[in-house]
Design brief:
CATH architecture of one domain: Alpha-Beta Complex
Distance between the termini: 21 Å
Radius of gyration: 21 Å
Number of strands: 15
Strand content: 5-15%
Oligomer: single chain
Largest sheet: 11 strands, mixed
Number of helices: 14
Low-confidence stretches: none
Structural class: alpha/beta
CATH class of one domain: Alpha Beta
CATH superfamily of one domain: Amidase signature (AS) domain
Protein backbone atom coordinates (compact mmCIF):
# COMPACT_ATOMS: atom_id res chain seq x y z
CA UNK A 1 0.00 0.00 0.00
CA UNK A 2 1.33 3.44 -0.92
CA UNK A 3 2.02 5.79 2.00
CA UNK A 4 -0.50 8.60 2.51
CA UNK A 5 0.17 11.89 0.79
CA UNK A 6 1.26 14.69 3.11
CA UNK A 7 3.21 17.93 2.94
CA UNK A 8 6.54 16.08 2.79
CA UNK A 9 5.70 13.56 0.08
CA UNK A 10 8.09 13.89 -2.84
CA UNK A 11 6.99 15.36 -6.14
CA UNK A 12 7.42 12.00 -7.88
CA UNK A 13 5.28 10.26 -5.28
CA UNK A 14 2.58 12.90 -5.66
CA UNK A 15 2.63 12.44 -9.43
CA UNK A 16 2.40 8.67 -9.01
CA UNK A 17 -0.68 9.14 -6.83
CA UNK A 18 -2.19 11.52 -9.39
CA UNK A 19 -1.65 9.00 -12.17
CA UNK A 20 -3.07 6.20 -10.02
CA UNK A 21 -6.10 8.45 -9.38
CA UNK A 22 -5.74 8.00 -5.61
CA UNK A 23 -5.58 11.76 -5.21
CA UNK A 24 -6.77 14.61 -7.40
CA UNK A 25 -5.00 17.83 -8.30
CA UNK A 26 -7.73 19.74 -6.46
CA UNK A 27 -7.10 17.68 -3.32
CA UNK A 28 -3.34 18.28 -3.56
CA UNK A 29 -4.01 21.99 -3.95
CA UNK A 30 -6.23 21.96 -0.85
CA UNK A 31 -3.59 20.06 1.13
CA UNK A 32 -0.93 22.63 0.33
CA UNK A 33 -3.20 25.61 0.81
CA UNK A 34 -4.13 24.29 4.25
CA UNK A 35 -0.44 23.97 5.13
CA UNK A 36 0.26 27.44 3.77
CA UNK A 37 -2.59 28.81 5.90
CA UNK A 38 -1.20 27.05 8.95
CA UNK A 39 2.56 27.54 8.56
CA UNK A 40 3.39 30.29 6.09
CA UNK A 41 3.00 33.06 8.66
CA UNK A 42 5.88 31.50 10.61
CA UNK A 43 8.29 31.44 7.72
CA UNK A 44 6.91 34.07 5.31
CA UNK A 45 8.11 32.02 2.35
CA UNK A 46 5.28 32.31 -0.22
CA UNK A 47 4.58 36.01 -0.62
CA UNK A 48 2.68 36.34 -3.92
CA UNK A 49 -0.30 33.94 -4.02
CA UNK A 50 -1.65 32.72 -7.33
CA UNK A 51 -5.39 33.23 -7.40
CA UNK A 52 -5.64 31.11 -10.57
CA UNK A 53 -4.41 27.92 -8.89
CA UNK A 54 -7.89 26.45 -8.43
CA UNK A 55 -8.69 26.82 -12.13
CA UNK A 56 -5.39 25.16 -13.03
CA UNK A 57 -5.96 22.25 -10.63
CA UNK A 58 -9.46 21.62 -11.96
CA UNK A 59 -8.18 21.78 -15.54
CA UNK A 60 -5.52 19.19 -14.64
CA UNK A 61 -8.16 16.87 -13.20
CA UNK A 62 -10.30 17.30 -16.32
CA UNK A 63 -7.28 16.49 -18.49
CA UNK A 64 -6.61 13.29 -16.55
CA UNK A 65 -10.25 12.33 -16.87
CA UNK A 66 -9.77 12.55 -20.64
CA UNK A 67 -6.75 10.23 -20.39
CA UNK A 68 -4.16 12.97 -20.81
CA UNK A 69 -0.89 13.24 -18.89
CA UNK A 70 1.99 15.63 -18.45
CA UNK A 71 5.33 15.63 -16.69
CA UNK A 72 3.92 17.80 -13.87
CA UNK A 73 0.19 17.50 -14.51
CA UNK A 74 -1.65 18.49 -11.35
CA UNK A 75 1.48 18.92 -9.22
CA UNK A 76 1.60 21.99 -6.95
CA UNK A 77 4.74 24.11 -7.30
CA UNK A 78 6.19 27.53 -6.52
CA UNK A 79 8.40 29.95 -8.46
CA UNK A 80 10.82 32.57 -7.21
CA UNK A 81 9.60 36.18 -7.22
CA UNK A 82 12.26 37.15 -9.81
CA UNK A 83 11.01 34.68 -12.44
CA UNK A 84 8.30 36.29 -14.51
CA UNK A 85 4.83 34.75 -14.67
CA UNK A 86 2.25 36.64 -16.71
CA UNK A 87 -0.27 38.41 -14.50
CA UNK A 88 1.75 38.05 -11.28
CA UNK A 89 4.15 40.47 -9.67
CA UNK A 90 7.91 40.18 -10.16
CA UNK A 91 9.35 42.72 -7.74
CA UNK A 92 12.92 41.54 -6.97
CA UNK A 93 12.06 42.64 -3.43
CA UNK A 94 12.50 46.31 -4.32
CA UNK A 95 9.89 48.88 -3.18
CA UNK A 96 10.02 50.92 -6.38
CA UNK A 97 9.00 47.78 -8.27
CA UNK A 98 6.47 46.52 -5.74
CA UNK A 99 3.60 46.91 -8.22
CA UNK A 100 5.52 45.51 -11.22
CA UNK A 101 3.41 42.85 -12.97
CA UNK A 102 4.89 40.56 -15.62
CA UNK A 103 3.21 40.51 -19.01
CA UNK A 104 4.83 37.28 -20.23
CA UNK A 105 5.98 33.98 -18.79
CA UNK A 106 9.70 33.34 -18.54
CA UNK A 107 10.54 30.22 -20.59
CA UNK A 108 11.21 28.28 -17.38
CA UNK A 109 7.79 29.24 -16.02
CA UNK A 110 6.10 28.59 -19.36
CA UNK A 111 7.57 25.08 -19.56
CA UNK A 112 6.64 24.18 -16.00
CA UNK A 113 3.09 25.43 -16.52
CA UNK A 114 2.79 23.74 -19.90
CA UNK A 115 3.83 20.48 -18.25
CA UNK A 116 0.77 20.82 -16.01
CA UNK A 117 2.25 22.35 -12.88
CA UNK A 118 -0.24 24.11 -10.58
CA UNK A 119 1.37 27.32 -9.39
CA UNK A 120 0.68 27.96 -5.70
CA UNK A 121 2.46 31.30 -5.73
CA UNK A 122 5.82 33.03 -5.77
CA UNK A 123 8.50 32.99 -3.10
CA UNK A 124 10.49 35.66 -1.30
CA UNK A 125 13.92 37.06 -2.17
CA UNK A 126 16.34 39.74 -0.92
CA UNK A 127 16.43 43.11 -2.71
CA UNK A 128 17.70 42.63 -6.25
CA UNK A 129 18.28 38.96 -5.35
CA UNK A 130 21.63 39.88 -3.79
CA UNK A 131 22.01 38.52 -0.27
CA UNK A 132 22.33 35.29 1.68
CA UNK A 133 19.04 36.25 3.33
CA UNK A 134 15.52 36.74 1.98
CA UNK A 135 14.45 40.01 3.58
CA UNK A 136 13.08 43.07 1.82
CA UNK A 137 10.92 46.12 2.37
CA UNK A 138 8.12 44.80 0.13
CA UNK A 139 7.32 41.46 1.79
CA UNK A 140 9.45 41.34 4.93
CA UNK A 141 11.77 38.64 6.21
CA UNK A 142 11.69 34.92 5.47
CA UNK A 143 12.65 32.63 8.36
CA UNK A 144 14.40 29.29 8.28
CA UNK A 145 11.95 26.53 9.32
CA UNK A 146 14.74 24.86 11.34
CA UNK A 147 15.24 28.00 13.45
CA UNK A 148 12.99 31.00 12.90
CA UNK A 149 15.74 33.29 14.14
CA UNK A 150 18.01 32.32 11.26
CA UNK A 151 18.20 32.96 7.54
CA UNK A 152 16.94 30.40 5.01
CA UNK A 153 19.67 31.64 2.67
CA UNK A 154 19.33 33.68 -0.48
CA UNK A 155 18.44 34.61 -2.91
CA UNK A 156 15.99 31.71 -3.41
CA UNK A 157 15.45 31.76 0.34
CA UNK A 158 11.66 31.79 0.23
CA UNK A 159 11.63 28.77 -2.07
CA UNK A 160 13.99 26.71 0.09
CA UNK A 161 12.01 27.59 3.23
CA UNK A 162 8.72 26.66 1.54
CA UNK A 163 10.11 23.25 0.59
CA UNK A 164 11.52 22.55 4.04
CA UNK A 165 8.24 23.57 5.69
CA UNK A 166 6.19 21.31 3.40
CA UNK A 167 4.41 24.17 1.64
CA UNK A 168 5.39 23.06 -1.87
CA UNK A 169 6.96 19.95 -3.41
CA UNK A 170 8.86 21.82 -6.13
CA UNK A 171 10.43 25.25 -6.53
CA UNK A 172 11.99 26.95 -9.54
CA UNK A 173 14.69 29.42 -8.54
CA UNK A 174 17.81 31.07 -9.94
CA UNK A 175 21.51 30.97 -9.17
CA UNK A 176 24.26 33.46 -9.97
CA UNK A 177 26.64 33.11 -7.03
CA UNK A 178 24.92 30.28 -5.15
CA UNK A 179 21.33 31.50 -4.90
CA UNK A 180 19.82 28.02 -5.36
CA UNK A 181 22.45 25.92 -3.65
CA UNK A 182 23.15 27.94 -0.50
CA UNK A 183 19.45 28.18 0.51
CA UNK A 184 19.11 24.46 -0.17
CA UNK A 185 22.02 23.79 2.20
CA UNK A 186 20.71 26.14 4.89
CA UNK A 187 17.21 24.60 4.78
CA UNK A 188 18.17 20.94 4.38
CA UNK A 189 16.73 20.44 0.88
CA UNK A 190 18.22 19.79 -2.57
CA UNK A 191 19.04 22.36 -5.22
CA UNK A 192 20.62 22.15 -8.65
CA UNK A 193 22.48 24.77 -10.65
CA UNK A 194 22.27 23.51 -14.26
CA UNK A 195 25.08 23.48 -16.77
CA UNK A 196 25.57 26.83 -18.42
CA UNK A 197 23.29 27.10 -21.48
CA UNK A 198 21.18 24.08 -20.51
CA UNK A 199 18.22 26.19 -19.36
CA UNK A 200 16.93 29.54 -20.71
CA UNK A 201 17.90 32.66 -18.76
CA UNK A 202 15.36 35.17 -20.04
CA UNK A 203 12.36 36.33 -18.06
CA UNK A 204 14.35 36.96 -14.88
CA UNK A 205 14.09 40.30 -13.08
CA UNK A 206 16.66 41.77 -12.61
CA UNK A 207 18.60 40.88 -15.73
CA UNK A 208 17.63 38.08 -18.02
CA UNK A 209 16.36 40.17 -20.91
CA UNK A 210 16.81 39.10 -24.53
CA UNK A 211 20.11 41.00 -24.74
CA UNK A 212 21.37 40.08 -21.30
CA UNK A 213 25.09 39.45 -20.83
CA UNK A 214 24.39 37.68 -17.55
CA UNK A 215 26.18 34.55 -18.70
CA UNK A 216 26.92 33.36 -15.17
CA UNK A 217 23.32 33.47 -13.95
CA UNK A 218 21.02 30.47 -14.43
CA UNK A 219 17.57 29.20 -13.46
CA UNK A 220 17.10 25.80 -11.89
CA UNK A 221 15.05 23.61 -9.53
CA UNK A 222 14.92 22.99 -5.79
CA UNK A 223 13.14 20.01 -4.21
CA UNK A 224 13.20 17.75 -1.18
CA UNK A 225 14.74 14.89 -3.16
CA UNK A 226 17.40 14.73 -5.85
CA UNK A 227 15.14 12.52 -7.97
CA UNK A 228 12.67 15.41 -8.07
CA UNK A 229 15.46 17.70 -9.29
CA UNK A 230 15.99 15.38 -12.26
CA UNK A 231 12.27 15.45 -13.03
CA UNK A 232 12.11 19.24 -12.90
CA UNK A 233 15.29 19.77 -14.88
CA UNK A 234 14.04 17.63 -17.74
CA UNK A 235 10.94 19.82 -17.94
CA UNK A 236 12.83 23.11 -18.23
CA UNK A 237 16.05 22.11 -20.05
CA UNK A 238 16.50 23.11 -23.65
CA UNK A 239 17.58 26.00 -25.86
CA UNK A 240 15.75 29.29 -25.71
CA UNK A 241 13.38 28.92 -28.62
CA UNK A 242 9.69 29.43 -29.20
CA UNK A 243 7.53 27.02 -27.25
CA UNK A 244 6.15 25.61 -30.50
CA UNK A 245 9.66 24.39 -31.43
CA UNK A 246 11.21 21.02 -30.69
CA UNK A 247 13.43 22.59 -28.04
CA UNK A 248 13.95 19.77 -25.59
CA UNK A 249 17.49 18.95 -24.49
CA UNK A 250 18.17 15.28 -23.85
CA UNK A 251 20.85 15.29 -21.18
CA UNK A 252 23.18 12.26 -21.05
CA UNK A 253 22.41 9.52 -18.58
CA UNK A 254 24.24 9.54 -15.25
CA UNK A 255 27.66 7.96 -15.43
CA UNK A 256 26.71 5.38 -12.81
CA UNK A 257 23.66 3.94 -11.08
CA UNK A 258 25.48 2.65 -8.01
CA UNK A 259 27.80 4.43 -5.61
CA UNK A 260 30.34 1.64 -6.04
CA UNK A 261 30.69 2.56 -9.72
CA UNK A 262 31.53 6.22 -9.11
CA UNK A 263 34.86 8.03 -8.99
CA UNK A 264 34.50 10.73 -6.34
CA UNK A 265 37.12 13.45 -5.91
CA UNK A 266 37.10 15.40 -2.65
CA UNK A 267 38.35 18.98 -2.87
CA UNK A 268 41.42 19.56 -0.68
CA UNK A 269 40.99 21.86 2.31
CA UNK A 270 41.80 25.52 1.58
CA UNK A 271 44.19 26.98 4.13
CA UNK A 272 42.95 30.59 3.83
CA UNK A 273 39.24 29.69 3.89
CA UNK A 274 37.88 28.55 7.27
CA UNK A 275 35.01 26.06 7.19
CA UNK A 276 32.91 25.10 10.19
CA UNK A 277 34.29 21.98 11.89
CA UNK A 278 30.96 20.15 11.64
CA UNK A 279 30.73 20.83 7.91
CA UNK A 280 34.31 19.66 7.39
CA UNK A 281 33.59 16.56 9.47
CA UNK A 282 30.44 15.85 7.41
CA UNK A 283 32.49 16.04 4.21
CA UNK A 284 35.17 13.74 5.58
CA UNK A 285 32.60 11.35 7.00
CA UNK A 286 30.74 11.08 3.71
CA UNK A 287 34.00 10.41 1.87
CA UNK A 288 34.80 7.59 4.27
CA UNK A 289 31.35 6.05 3.91
CA UNK A 290 31.55 6.30 0.12
CA UNK A 291 34.83 4.44 0.21
CA UNK A 292 33.18 1.62 2.13
CA UNK A 293 30.56 1.26 -0.61
CA UNK A 294 33.30 0.50 -3.12
CA UNK A 295 33.40 3.92 -4.76
CA UNK A 296 36.80 5.20 -5.76
CA UNK A 297 37.42 8.18 -3.48
CA UNK A 298 40.45 10.47 -3.47
CA UNK A 299 41.52 14.03 -2.72
CA UNK A 300 41.90 15.86 -6.04
CA UNK A 301 41.03 19.05 -7.87
CA UNK A 302 41.13 20.39 -11.44
CA UNK A 303 44.46 21.80 -12.55
CA UNK A 304 44.63 25.45 -11.57
CA UNK A 305 42.24 25.22 -8.64
CA UNK A 306 45.24 25.04 -6.33
CA UNK A 307 45.10 28.81 -6.93
CA UNK A 308 41.55 29.05 -5.66
CA UNK A 309 42.15 32.65 -4.62
CA UNK A 310 42.90 33.59 -8.24
CA UNK A 311 39.84 31.63 -9.38
CA UNK A 312 37.64 33.56 -6.97
CA UNK A 313 39.19 36.91 -7.85
CA UNK A 314 38.27 36.28 -11.48
CA UNK A 315 34.73 35.36 -10.49
CA UNK A 316 34.35 38.49 -8.35
CA UNK A 317 35.69 40.69 -11.15
CA UNK A 318 33.20 39.26 -13.62
CA UNK A 319 30.36 39.56 -11.11
CA UNK A 320 31.17 43.22 -10.52
CA UNK A 321 31.34 43.93 -14.24
CA UNK A 322 27.68 42.97 -14.60
CA UNK A 323 26.61 46.15 -12.80
CA UNK A 324 29.30 48.48 -14.18
CA UNK A 325 28.10 51.87 -15.48
CA UNK A 326 28.52 52.56 -19.18
CA UNK A 327 30.50 55.80 -19.05
CA UNK A 328 34.22 55.49 -18.25
CA UNK A 329 34.23 58.19 -15.59
CA UNK A 330 31.19 56.65 -13.93
CA UNK A 331 32.94 53.26 -13.90
CA UNK A 332 36.00 54.78 -12.24
CA UNK A 333 33.87 56.45 -9.60
CA UNK A 334 32.07 53.17 -8.93
CA UNK A 335 35.42 51.40 -8.55
CA UNK A 336 36.69 54.05 -6.14
CA UNK A 337 33.52 53.73 -4.07
CA UNK A 338 34.08 49.97 -3.79
CA UNK A 339 37.69 50.44 -2.73
CA UNK A 340 36.59 52.92 -0.07
CA UNK A 341 34.17 50.36 1.38
CA UNK A 342 36.89 47.73 1.66
CA UNK A 343 36.32 44.05 2.36
CA UNK A 344 37.53 40.71 1.00
CA UNK A 345 38.37 40.66 -2.71
CA UNK A 346 37.57 44.37 -2.94
CA UNK A 347 40.28 45.03 -5.51
CA UNK A 348 38.93 42.26 -7.74
CA UNK A 349 35.44 43.75 -7.54
CA UNK A 350 36.74 47.26 -8.19
CA UNK A 351 38.51 46.03 -11.33
CA UNK A 352 35.18 44.66 -12.50
CA UNK A 353 33.65 48.13 -12.35
CA UNK A 354 36.50 49.55 -14.48
CA UNK A 355 36.66 46.87 -17.18
CA UNK A 356 36.87 47.85 -20.81
CA UNK A 357 35.93 45.58 -23.69
CA UNK A 358 39.47 44.26 -24.22
CA UNK A 359 39.84 43.48 -20.51
CA UNK A 360 36.50 41.68 -20.50
CA UNK A 361 37.51 39.43 -23.39
CA UNK A 362 40.86 38.71 -21.75
CA UNK A 363 39.17 37.67 -18.50
CA UNK A 364 36.86 35.33 -20.36
CA UNK A 365 39.98 33.78 -21.84
CA UNK A 366 41.16 33.08 -18.29
CA UNK A 367 37.76 31.57 -17.56
CA UNK A 368 38.14 29.24 -20.55
CA UNK A 369 41.39 27.90 -19.10
CA UNK A 370 39.53 26.88 -15.95
CA UNK A 371 36.79 25.31 -18.07
CA UNK A 372 39.40 23.29 -19.97
CA UNK A 373 40.85 22.15 -16.64
CA UNK A 374 37.43 20.80 -15.63
CA UNK A 375 37.14 18.92 -18.92
CA UNK A 376 40.43 17.19 -18.26
CA UNK A 377 39.56 16.53 -14.63
CA UNK A 378 36.27 14.80 -15.45
CA UNK A 379 38.02 12.31 -17.70
CA UNK A 380 39.41 10.77 -14.52
CA UNK A 381 36.67 11.63 -12.01
CA UNK A 382 32.85 11.65 -12.10
CA UNK A 383 32.02 14.19 -9.38
CA UNK A 384 33.90 16.74 -7.32
CA UNK A 385 32.66 16.81 -3.70
CA UNK A 386 33.05 20.09 -1.79
CA UNK A 387 31.56 22.03 1.11
CA UNK A 388 28.56 24.11 0.08
CA UNK A 389 28.85 26.82 2.72
CA UNK A 390 31.29 27.97 5.39
CA UNK A 391 28.70 27.72 8.16
CA UNK A 392 25.23 26.43 8.78
CA UNK A 393 22.40 28.99 8.55
CA UNK A 394 23.42 32.13 10.41
CA UNK A 395 21.20 34.37 12.58
CA UNK A 396 19.18 37.14 10.93
CA UNK A 397 21.16 40.33 10.64
CA UNK A 398 20.58 43.86 9.39
CA UNK A 399 24.31 44.52 8.98
CA UNK A 400 24.94 45.37 5.29
CA UNK A 401 26.92 42.76 3.40
CA UNK A 402 30.09 44.86 2.94
CA UNK A 403 30.42 45.18 6.74
CA UNK A 404 28.96 41.80 7.64
CA UNK A 405 31.10 39.10 9.25
CA UNK A 406 30.32 35.40 9.51
CA UNK A 407 31.21 33.52 12.67
CA UNK A 408 33.03 30.35 11.63
CA UNK A 409 33.67 28.55 14.92
CA UNK A 410 34.68 31.79 16.58
CA UNK A 411 36.65 33.18 13.63
CA UNK A 412 35.01 36.21 12.00
CA UNK A 413 35.34 36.26 8.21
CA UNK A 414 33.94 38.48 5.48
CA UNK A 415 30.50 37.59 4.16
CA UNK A 416 32.08 37.73 0.68
CA UNK A 417 33.89 34.45 1.37
CA UNK A 418 30.58 32.56 1.49
CA UNK A 419 30.52 32.60 -2.31
CA UNK A 420 33.87 30.81 -2.78
CA UNK A 421 32.54 27.24 -2.80
CA UNK A 422 29.42 28.04 -4.86
CA UNK A 423 31.75 29.84 -7.29
CA UNK A 424 33.63 26.62 -8.05
CA UNK A 425 30.75 25.71 -10.37
CA UNK A 426 29.48 29.21 -11.07
CA UNK A 427 32.55 30.60 -12.79
CA UNK A 428 32.93 27.73 -15.26
CA UNK A 429 29.30 26.82 -15.88
CA UNK A 430 29.54 23.34 -14.38
CA UNK A 431 26.39 21.60 -13.12
CA UNK A 432 26.30 21.38 -9.33
CA UNK A 433 23.89 19.80 -6.86
CA UNK A 434 23.51 20.84 -3.24
CA UNK A 435 22.22 18.07 -0.97
CA UNK A 436 21.67 17.52 2.78
CA UNK A 437 23.93 15.21 4.81
CA UNK A 438 22.65 15.61 8.36
CA UNK A 439 22.41 18.15 11.16
CA UNK A 440 24.76 20.06 13.39
CA UNK A 441 24.76 19.43 17.15
CA UNK A 442 22.37 22.37 17.48
CA UNK A 443 19.97 20.92 14.92
CA UNK A 444 20.74 22.93 11.78
CA UNK A 445 21.04 21.32 8.33
CA UNK A 446 24.42 20.65 6.76
CA UNK A 447 24.64 20.64 2.98
CA UNK A 448 27.42 19.58 0.63
CA UNK A 449 27.98 20.15 -3.09
CA UNK A 450 28.59 17.70 -5.92
CA UNK A 451 29.98 19.28 -9.11
CA UNK A 452 29.71 17.34 -12.35
CA UNK A 453 30.91 17.45 -15.96
CA UNK A 454 29.45 20.06 -18.29
CA UNK A 455 26.02 19.04 -19.62
CA UNK A 456 26.16 15.84 -17.58
CA UNK A 457 23.78 17.23 -14.97
CA UNK A 458 22.28 13.83 -14.33
CA UNK A 459 25.56 12.62 -12.80
CA UNK A 460 25.75 14.96 -9.76
CA UNK A 461 21.97 14.75 -9.33
CA UNK A 462 22.09 10.95 -9.36
CA UNK A 463 25.03 10.98 -6.98
CA UNK A 464 22.98 13.06 -4.50
CA UNK A 465 20.04 10.66 -4.90
CA UNK A 466 22.24 7.62 -4.24
CA UNK A 467 23.75 9.28 -1.16
CA UNK A 468 20.23 9.90 0.18
CA UNK A 469 19.21 6.28 -0.51
CA UNK A 470 22.29 4.89 1.22
CA UNK A 471 22.80 7.31 4.09
CA UNK A 472 19.62 9.39 4.43
CA UNK A 473 18.47 12.66 2.89
CA UNK A 474 15.82 15.26 3.68
CA UNK A 475 14.42 15.48 7.20
CA UNK A 476 11.36 17.49 8.16
CA UNK A 477 12.08 20.33 10.58
CA UNK A 478 10.50 20.03 14.05
CA UNK A 479 7.17 21.76 14.40
CA UNK A 480 6.17 21.38 10.74
CA UNK A 481 5.42 17.66 10.61
Amino acid sequence: MAPPIDGFTTARQMLHALRARTVSAAELLDLHRERIERYNARVNAIVIPNERARVAAEAADDARARGEDGALLGLPMTIKDCTEVAGLRATAGVPEHAARVATDDAPVAARALAAGGVLLGKTNVPPWAQDWQANNAVFGRTNNPWDLGRTPGGSTGGGAAALAAGLTPLEFGSDLGGSIRVPAAFCGVCGHRPSESAVPRSGHFPGGGPNSALTLGLMGPLARSADDLALALQVIAGPELGEDTAWRLELPAARAERLAELRVAVLPAVDWLPVGAEIAAALEGLAERLGRTGARVGVAQPEGLDDLRGHHELLQTLFASLNAPRALEDRRRAADALRARGGAFVEARARGRELGAVDYVRLYGQRERFRAAYRGFFREWDVLLTPMTLTAAFPHTDVPRPERRLDVDGVLVSDALQSVYPGLAGLCGQPATSFPVGLTRTGLPIGLQAIGPYLEDRTPIRFAALVAQEFGGFQAPPGFE
